[in-house]
Amino acid sequence: MNANAVTNTEPLADSVLGFRVGAWGFILPVSIHCEVLERLHVNPIPNVEPWLSGLLNVRGLIVPVIDLHLWLGMGTLATKERRLFTIGRGDKTMAVWIDGYPQLLSEQAQSFVPIPPVETLPPALLPFVAQCYSYHGEIWLKAQFDSLFRTLGQHQSRQETVS
Amino acid sequence: MTDLPPTSDDIAAVLAALADNAAEDGCYGFQDACLLIGEALAALPAEGLTSELQALLVGLPQVYKDYRLGDRLSIAGIFDILQHPVLQVILADDELLLLAEQLNTDMTALSDGIEIIADAPDEPALADTPEKVVISPNPVLSKASLELVALLDTQARYISGLIDALPLGQTDALAADLENIGEELERYISAANMAGFTGLALVCEQVLANIERFHANIGVFSAEHQVLLQTWISETIAYLAAVSDSQAGLPLLAILGADSWLLPVTLEDAGLIMAHFKATDANLHEPEPEIRKQTATLNDIDLTLPEDVNPELLDILLHELPLQIQEFSSAIQRLQTGGSLADLEIAQRVAHTVKGAANTVGIKGIAELTHQLEDILLAFASAQQLPGYALLSVLMDAADCLAVMGESLTGFSPPPEDALLVLQSVLDWANQIEQVGVAALLEPNDQVGSIPPEPALPNTDEPIAASSSVRVASAQLDDLFKLADENVILNSQANERLRRIRAQLRAMEAQIELLRQLGDELEQLVDLKDLTGQASGKGQADFDALEMDQYNELHTASRRMVEAAFDAREISKDASKELEAMNEVLEDQQRIGNETQAVMMQTRLLPVSSIAQRLQRSLRQTCRLTQKQCDLVLTGDHLMVNGDTLNSLLDPLMHLLRNAVDHGIETAEQRLAAGKNPHGTLALHFELDGNHIRVRVQDDGRGLDFAAIRDTAIRRGLLDSGQNLSDKDLARYILRPNFSTRTVATQTSGRGVGMDAVHYQVVGLGGSLALDSVPGLGLSVDLRVPLPMSRVHALLTQVGTYKVAIANKGVTQILFAGAATILDDDQGQFVLLADERYEAVPLSRLLRIPERRKRELYYRTVLLVQHDEQTTAVLIDAITDSLDIVIKSLGQYVNKIPGFAGAAIMGDGTVAAVVDLPELLRRQYADAVTYTELAEEWLPETRLPTVLLVDDSLSQRRALEQLLQDAGFAVRTARDGIEATEQLADFKPDIVLTDLEMPRMNGIELTAHIRTRENLKTLPVIMITSRTTQAHRQLALEAGIDFYLVKPVQEDDLLGKIQGLLATATP
Question: How would DSSP label each residue in B791-822?
Fold first, then answer.
């Protein structure tokens, strides 16, 4: 995806799942396999970027946890409110921290208005956002999580400081 | 003359009548000719009519008669008149050609309905003309070819006339005429080429070269040369007459060798021309229209696999077949219960696909049956009708038959018994449809009238079960079942023991309670005794204390207590025994667990020899491309290795082999000069090393050019000119990205896939690469790759706040501080052991975990780790546990974190990252910048040239994909034109390979689409199809195809063409 990808204005399909990470809402098609995890221990890994929070043991499967908020440079979410949310299945499963619970936004799909890219959109996120929507004054993003996770997966080890 | 010569008016009248006749007969060409002649005649002054011309004109009606009878020679007769110098018919050259074409076409149209008697030997009229060669319509040559031959013949005669009319002796006029002939010949050559007569064209080119030479040295040209030219042109005409004869080109070729030519043909060219004559011969023959067989034979239902069957394609077929047949059956079922045209189309498409796949692999039985099915379904589809009940049940039988055939291929069930019967009934239906057409077969209760076409169903996705699957021997599965059973039994035994131990524990509790009670009693009694002791007095004085035991309550109480204590110990011993027994059960269970895991892993193992064939093929191809000769020697190929690892090794190994041939092995001459065998040797050795696999690729070529490496390194600023490095260290420079000592890309190495790519891939697998080279003797590349899903032994330790597992990879010794000493000197910390000095580094530093330690707190455990021929001491605090773990990957996205082998799940459910010490140490000591560069910027896919492969047949896609990948291309595929255009919207490949006929958008439409896009229009496109006719080729060329290749495609030819196109492509 390139930065010019945010050009077509498609209306939303009927059923979508939405979740919020700080100020940003993300939309997922209902067909994607996802799960909310309660009270699962996150095992940290040494010497990786701080936004790679650690690893989860989800029924025998090892799932990495990404702190999107931290990655976007906005600090971590309030620990009390945040939950673990996995996206994908099998060895393509990734987990992110989300605010509160995800919501099913089926009936209101029509009220999502496609808008051009917002200026406040963090530049790191821009290449992965296919479309922005406005809904009751909130910004919701339709993102390409596959490309996002792929890119994050390649940059997880902390940069060496050149002596 | 006895007769009065006919007047011009008479002749004109005859011409007019002829023209009308011709028009009535539909011979418009002839009519035109007559009209033209008539006009020219009218313009001629009366004296101009020579007797010769007169005679010709008088003969015109006879010429027309001949023409009507299909005598192609008559056309020449017409042209004799048209081109007669006296008549001066005004015709431009292209008009002449058009007219000739028209005459030919008309004659062909005529001859369709008329019996050809031209070759009947007893025709007296024609027997008088022995020197005129009759072009007998050959039933084997196609109509199209015949037309072309006639055209070329006419033109040849025209040229012949020109040659005859050469004015010898008049230099200027001669030169001008020769030039004219040259121009005619040029046109002739392009006509011949377009018609596919490449051999003839080459001959003419040779003659043209000579004519030009003559023109330059006009004084040389003599009557002898004229004769030569005449002989040549008459031989050409003779060739055209006998063009279907395989020896046809020989006399023509022989003429070229005559000494009188200024430029006689060379032996090489002659050979080339000969080859082309042979090829032309093949091209002319139209594929025979298939005559459908009437009777099914045993051969037609044969399911035996050909000996040279490609195992991978067979695998794919076996995998896809059941799913395809299922789809087919479902479609037929839907048709039976009132389906639509869409279902018909699905069934037809599936039949087509299965037929193609079966043909590719070589299974006659399936191919034949599906071929007939496809024809039937096609007939109905084009007639837009649905088959009736009777036919549908035959189709259903056929579907079932196919299903049984498919199953029998796996070897588990016998082939269908009714195959012959089913094929026969299908054949009968097919023949019937061919004879009477679809409409006649409709049964009364069918829906008559066209059904409104429904929108085509979306392209059926590739079968969902496309996830990789593995074949497991049933013996292994039996083992696994047994192990699982035993596991359950052991588990219940363990439970039983546990129950017993619980009971023991309860008994123990009761006993302790009893002891406690007894203790209380004793206490009370002692207290009482104390109080009342003195009061009892000396009652019985007969016996003293030693002679008779005095039992009182105190004794009883204490005795009981001792007994209770003894009992408690017994219970405790029993409990211990139970625990022992339980331990044994658990050990058994662990053993079963290990065995189960081992058997499971065995199912994923493949012998190394399974990739040997592909390696061999790739090597042979590279050798052909570079024109070097090499032998491949494989050792250790009996080794059983995890299937995934083997597949991921395939790419790097092929790169290494290609590099070895391209850069390492010298040409045969160079090798001979160096005293080596002209055949290069590539030795590939496989062996197991713990839970790693080691592969050594060794060539006996020229080895690394250390001087060049040094220079390039200095040039790129990676090395100071004063620095002195060992060969070993210098060698490692070639692993850096974009490092190449070559300034010019050669054909195979032009792809730029060098050692850096191989290194990247190997490191990505968690492995390592070592180089060893001796100049002049060769290069040896050592790969070491870990086997996944392996159980390794690991040590658990705490580093800062992190709990990590350290894999035993590379660990040669574990020491506890005390046996070795950790010392400090100006070079840093080190460990001294048996007079050896090992550099020491704490694990916390390697993992960049900040630690606040008191200076006095020393590391209690030292691990000696070997990495890249160096041993370092890694310091940790303590080993909290030592256990076997299974290293798991972190998923597809976070595939590899540098320094870690993966992660493992501990007994308590937590996840520990598994540290790879040698890798950590390597990163520590190597140039840090290089490695981040390596990991982040170098993406091999972006540097490999990309091919977009478009074909609706899965087996064809897979076969070509494998070929192209082995040759070093990145391949993307699409199933039809629409998918291809969708992909092209996102990325631009370097070249497109497409099939012709595909659903939704065919190859021609796709190419047209590509040529209209600004950013794509220069994209090279090659079409690969089974269609051989000129019409298709023409259509494709007009759409903008660069090359048109006919299946089956020669691999070398395809690769060569691709390389050629890429080399000249505009970026």
Answer: EEEEEEEEETTEEEEEE-TTEEEEEEBTTBEE
What pLDDT digit, counting tens, does each position of B595-604 carry?
887 788 778 7
CATH no. for B791-935 = 2.40.50.180
Q: Is B892 on the interface with A (CB under 8 A)?
A: yes
Listed in sequence order, the residues at least 6 apart from B578 whose beta carbon sits closer than 8 Å to its beta carbon are: B497, B500, B501, B504
Whether the pLDDT of residue B411 is over 80: the answer is: no
CB contact A60 to B (< 8 Å):
yes
Cβ distance B910 to A41 less than 8 Å, yes or no, reads yes
Contact B891 A157 (CB under 8 A): no
Domain layout of chain A by residue ranges:
15-154
Chain A residue nearest residue B843, CA to CA: A46
| Confidence category of residue B803, pLDDT binned at 50, 70, 90 | very high
Q: Which residue type, as a one-letter code, is found at position B33?
A: A
Any idea which fold B606-786 has? Heat Shock Protein 90 (3.30.565)
pLDDT, one tens digit per residue, over A124-134 is 888 888 888 88
Searching chain B, which residue's CA lies closest to the CA of residue A58?
Answer: B909
Shortest Cα–Cα distance, B1022 to chain A (Å): 28
Mean pLDDT of B1015-1042: 89
Q: Rounded to a whole number, what is the distance in Å from the CA of A136 to chain B's nearest CA? A: 33
pLDDT at B936: 34
Summarize the confidence of residues B877-884 as an average pLDDT: 88
When comparing pLDDT for B138 and B3, which is higher?
Answer: B3
A-B contacts (CB, under 8 Å): 89
Architecture per CATH, domain B301-445, reads as Up-down Bundle (1.20)
DSSP, collapsed to helix, strand or coil, labels residue B507 as helix
Q: What are phi and psi of B717, to 5 degrees?
A: 75, 15
- For residue A21, give the 3-state DSSP assignment: strand
B929 and A159 within 8 Å at the Cβ level: the answer is no
pTM, to two decimals: 0.43
CATH superfamily of B945-1064: Response regulator (3.40.50.2300)
- Cβ–Cβ below 8 Å for B890 and A57: no
CATH superfamily of A15-154: CheA-289, Domain 4 (2.40.50.180)
Could you tell me which residues come within 8 angstroms of residue B910 by beta carbon, excluding any fewer than 6 positions away? A41, A43, A57, B803
Distance from the Cα of A21 to chain B's closest Cα (Å) equals: 21
Record: contact B893-A157, CB cut-off 8 A = no
* Residue B419 confidence (pLDDT): 85
For chain A, positions 144-163, list CB contacts with chain B under 8 A.
149-150, 152-160, 162-163
CB spacing of B802 vs A56 below 8 angstroms: no
pLDDT of residue A90: 84
How many angstroms away from the CA of B705 is the closest CA of chain A?
31
pLDDT at A159: 52
Q: Given this model, what pLDDT does residue B113 score?
A: 47
Chain B: give the shortest CA distance to residue A48, in Å: 8
CB contact under 8 A, A45 and B888: no
Residues in chain A, total: 163
Answer yes or no: is the ipTM higher than 0.85.
yes
pLDDT in tens, B9-18: 778 888 888 8
Which is more confident, B762 or B795? B795
Nearest-10 crossing angle of helices B755-764, B643-659: 170
Q: With CA atoms as reference, report the closest residue to B633 among B686, B694, B669.
A: B686
CA distances from B380 to B73, B282, B370, B391 (A): 46, 34, 15, 11
Pairwise pLDDT comparison (B196 vs A67), residue with the higher score: A67
Sequence-distant contacts of B468-475: CB under 8 A, at least 24 apart: B469/B319, B470/B603, B470/B604, B470/B643, B472/B603, B473/B603
Q: Under DSSP, is residue B297 helix (H, G, I), strand (E, B) or coil?
A: coil
Which residue has better confidence, B963 or B80?
B963
